[in-house]
Amino acid sequence: MSLESFKLQLLFPTPVLVGRLPGAEAVNPALEASILERRKADPGIARSNVGGWHSAADFQAWGGDPLRRLIAQVVELADAHTAPADQRQDWAVETWANVSERGGSNQQHSHPGSFWSAVYYVRIDPGEGGELILHDPRMPVLNMHAPQLRFRSAGSEQLVQTSPSAGMLVLFPSWLGHSVRPYLGDGLRISVAINLSAPRPR
Fold first, then answer.
1. CATH architecture label of 17-141+157-197
2. In the predicted model, what is the mean pLDDT of residues 144-159?
3. What is the Cα–Cα distance from 188 to 197, expressed in whole angstroms?
4. pTM to 2 decimals?
């Protein structure tokens, strides 16, 4: 039997966009100042964060113009990678701030109820750890059946690690599981998280 006639098709890709946001140097100092000022007066909430400070999802109410500029750029990027491509989407936006010190991390989670999620890095002090981890959504089922096997030529990785830097933006589907490894430095890691949700069909 000849197998040469079979053509490999890689279906159902997961879109992830990683890049440096234009104008980061102008917006980051103001974002940092507002986040650290808020942290002084607000104890924050517990979600996926282990240690660190997580604001309520009301950052738009106190983030001011720098946050509005950031959201506009995230929306522009999301629109460019959402079909239909000939119209802007009327996204509902939810955003919050995170501040991690030594030992701070985030457990694996996803953002149900949204379409796109983004993380933007405002300040990244030196130190090991703090990487963003994107988890292969196929693995829970595959590992239960055959933990020793992977699909050849179809992405053998179980997770993808991204080391953050100030000004970096990562945009990914909200259903994609993600986590943050413990930060082992003595400074701060400050980030902004954004969810974009589609309006309900009428």
1. Sandwich (2.60)
2. 84
3. 29
4. 0.94
Q: Which two tokens stand for residue 51?
A: 């240690």
Confidence of residue 157 (pLDDT cuts 50, 70, 90): confident
CA 119, CA 145: separation in Å to the nearest integer? 33
Give the end-to-end CA distance of the chain in Å, rounded to a whole number. Answer: 54
The number of C-alpha atoms within 13 Å of 113 and in the hemisphere containing its C-beta is 6
What are the extents of the domains in the chain? 17-141+157-197
Mean pLDDT of the chain: 94
pLDDT at 155 over 90: no
- CB 19: neighbour CB atoms within 10 A? 11
Q: What is the pLDDT of residues 43-74, one digit of tens each?
A: 999 999 999 999 999 999 999 999 999 999 99
Using only C-alpha atoms, the chain has a radius of gyration, in whole angstroms, of 19
The per-residue pLDDT for 54 is 98
